[in-house]
Amino acid sequence: MSNLRQQLNDSLKTALKAREELAVSTIRLILAALKDRDIAARSKGKDDGILDSDIYQLLNTMIRQRRDSIKLYETGGRQDLADREKKEITVIERFLPPQIEGDDMVQAVKSVIIEIDAKSIKDMGRTMNALKEQYVGQMDFSKASGVVRDSLKTE
After folding, report:
1. CB-based burial, 40-55: b 16+ in 10 Å, e otherwise
2. What rounded mean pLDDT belongs to the chain?
3. How far is CA 45 from CA 1, 41, 53, 54, 102, in A?
C-alpha cells in the first residue's frame, strides 16, 4: 500500500474516533473515488491500482469540482452549501503537497521550457508532460496550461 493510501486510511480512522463528520464524509468520498479508479485500472492490467501521482490528480479534480460548486451556490444564494464545500476543500488539501501558484508557477513553467528547449506552441504537449512529471500533485495543471500557452507564444 502506498504512503498516500495509508495516510488516507489513517486519517479516516482518526476522524472517526474524533467524530469529525465532515472529515469522515470527505475522506470516504476520496476513498470511494480511489476505489473506482483502482477498479478501472485493473481492467487495463494494472493490478496494483493507480499510482500516487494519479491520486494527486484525483484530489486536484475533486478540489476543482468543489470550487465550481462554490461559485454556483454563491450565485444561487446558498452560502451554507458554499461554506460546506470550502470546508471539504480544506480536508482534501491535507493530502496534497504544498501547491505552487502565481509567480512561482510562472517560474516553474519557464524553467521547464528552458530545460526541454521548447520553442513554440507545438511544444506545449512536451512541456505539460514535463511539468506533470516534475510537479506531481503540486499545481493545478489546468491553470499551468494557460501559463505554458502564454509563455510559448512569447518565446
Report:
1. ebeeeeeeebbeeebb
2. 91
3. 18, 7, 18, 16, 38
The whole-number pLDDT of residue 154 equals: 66
Query: Cell 499551468, residue?
Result: 144
Gyration radius of the chain's alpha carbons? 18
Question: What are the structural domains of the chain?
Answer: 3-93 (1.10.1510.10), 102-154 (1.10.10.410)
pLDDT tens-digit profile of 27-63?
A: 999 999 999 999 998 888 877 888 888 898 899 899 9
Report the chain's terminal Cα–Cα distance, integer Å: 43
Cα 67 from Cα 60, distance rounded (Å): 11
Cell of 109: 513553467
In Å, what is the CA distance from 119 to each residue of 61, 75, 124? 30, 42, 9
Residue 149 CA, chain-centre distance (Å), reads: 20
SS3 track for 20-33: CHHHHHHHHHHHHH
32 vs 139, more confident: 32
